[in-house]
Amino acid sequence: QVQVVESGGGLVQPGGSLRLSCVVSGNDFSRSVMGWYRQAPGEQRKFIAVITTGGSCSYADSVRGRFTISRDNAKNTVYLQMNSLKPEDTAIYYCNANNYFSYWGQGTQVTVSS
Prior knowledge:
This protein is mostly beta strands. The protein has no helices and eleven strands.
């Protein structure tokens, strides 16, 4: 059974940083395209960043230059380094593992507030 578990969320002041982690078990992580999405209250879930099996990365315009996605295949983990956080980054952040099938974690709350 595939499990996707996010961690690292919390409360941070505007301009601060957080690093989210997502550990995947039960599938071939190295062959999975990994993505981060977020959902703010009252809004639909939106794409944030993706990293391919070859390490190519893409970002939403709203986070490009502030967020960095990376992966460690030896640890079955994908990261999202978030810098220069803004109040509008407040959301539940979800990790997605895509390898023929799509798997989601339960999400981790990120709140940016002074």
